[in-house]
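Worked example 4.2. Below are the chains of a multi-component assembly; read each line carefully before continuing.
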Amino acid sequence: MTAGGPPISADGLERALACIRPLVLGHGGNIEIVDVDNGVVTVELTGACEACPNIAMTYAGSIRTFLMEVPGVMDVKCRRMHASERTLDRIAHMLGARPFE
Amino acid sequence: MKDGMFVFDAAVHCQDFTDRQIKPGSDGRRVRVLREQLKGFIDLTARRGPEANPGFESPPDLDWANAALFEKSDTDLAMACSVPLFAHWKAGLGPVELSYELAKSNPSRILLTGGVDPAYQGLDYALAEMERQVKEWGAVSMKFYQYQMRGCQWRADDRDVAYPLWEKAIELGIKMVQFHKGFPLELGPVEAFMPNDIQYAAADFPELNFGIHHLGDPYVAETISIASRFENVYLILPLWFNQYFLQPHKMLHRLGEALLFVGSDRICYGSEAFIWPHIQPYIDAWAAMEMPDELQDKYGYPELTRAIKEKVFGINFANGLGIDLNRKRAEFGLAA
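Applying the procedure described above to all two chains together yields the following C-alpha cells:
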C-alpha cells in the first residue's frame, strides 16, 4: 500500500533487499520485511544483527537508503532501532546515505 | 496519575534492619554493617536529593506507608518487594511477612513480590514456600538474592537448583521473577551479583520474564548488553532514581545507554521507598526529565518523549508481570 504515491512493487523491494542482504549475511545476520503499510516499510534484523551495537549504522547507512530508492516507499522503519532521529540523521550524513530530514 | 500517566512503583520495601533481626547465635555484625552501609549511602543521596528516612532501619508504619504512596505522591499502584537475605537475619533482610502485611493493608493498590532461597532454605522447601506465598498470600512475583554466606550461593542458570524454581513459577502463573543484582548488601562479594547467570535462564525459559534490579551496578554494561539480547529481560530502576539527584549526568548516561540498546519497552520505574520516603520528587523528576541535546548528539541517546515516560512509569512493569493496566485504571476510576 502507498499513501498518495505509486504502489510499492514487491519485486522492487526484493531487488533492494538483494543488494543489502549479502552485507548483512556477511556479519551473521539477516533481514526481512515484516510490514508494508501506507508507504512505510518495516524491516526486522535478525541473527547477529538483533542486538548489535552498530545496528544504527546498518539501518541508516544501507538498509534505509536502498529501500527508499524503491518507488512508493515514503519511510523505512526498523524494529529494535532505538537511536534518536537526530543521531540517525548524523550517521546518514557521515556515510553519505539518504538524510532523514 | 502523573499528568495522565499511570504510576506503578516496582519496588517499595518493608525492611527491618534493627537489632531485633540479629539471628540467635550470630554476633550481629552483618546486620550492623548493613545498617551502617545503608546509612552512609542514603545520607550521600540525600545531599542533593530528597531527604532520607531517619528511622529507615525500622519497618514502616502501614498507615504512614500508604499515605506516603497514595496521598503524598501520584503513585497509583506499588509492588511490596521482599529481599530474601536470610543467613544472618532472623526473618530476612526484607522479610516476606512484612511485605505481605503491607500488601494486605491495601490489596487493590499494593501487590506482593515474595522471596525464597533454594540454597539456604533447600530446594524442596523453597518450592513449597513459593507455592504457599502465591496461593495463600497472593504473591504475583518472586525476588531472589543469590548469596547468603560463604559456600551458600546459587546461579539462575543452575539446572538443578534454579531451573525447578522457574518451572514452578510458570506452573503457578508467575510471569516475572526478579533479582537483586550488583551492589552487595552487607559483606557479600560483589561478583556474586553479576548478572551473567541470567543469560541461559532467559534463553531456556522464554515464557518467563527476568527482572534485574539496580541496573546490576557496578555491572551496568553487562546488564544492558544482556537485556539488549534477551527480550524477556527487564531493567528495574530502583536506586537509579535515588542516585539521579546525586549524579544526574552519570545516571542520564546509564539510562541513555539502556534506552539506546534495550529500547523503552522493558525499563521500569521504582522508588525504593520507604528508605527514601519522599516519593513525589522522583515522580516529578521523571515527568520533567529531558535528555540533554549534547548527550543525544554525542552519544546517540534518544529524546525522552512522553511515550517513553509513560511506559517507564508503569506500562512496562505491568506488561512484564502480565497485569492489565486498563483494568486497573477502570478499577481505580481513572481515565484510560
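Take a moment to check your reading of the output against the notes. Residues 29-46 of chain B form the longest helix (18 residues). The CA atoms of residues 290 and 304 of chain B lie 6 Å apart.
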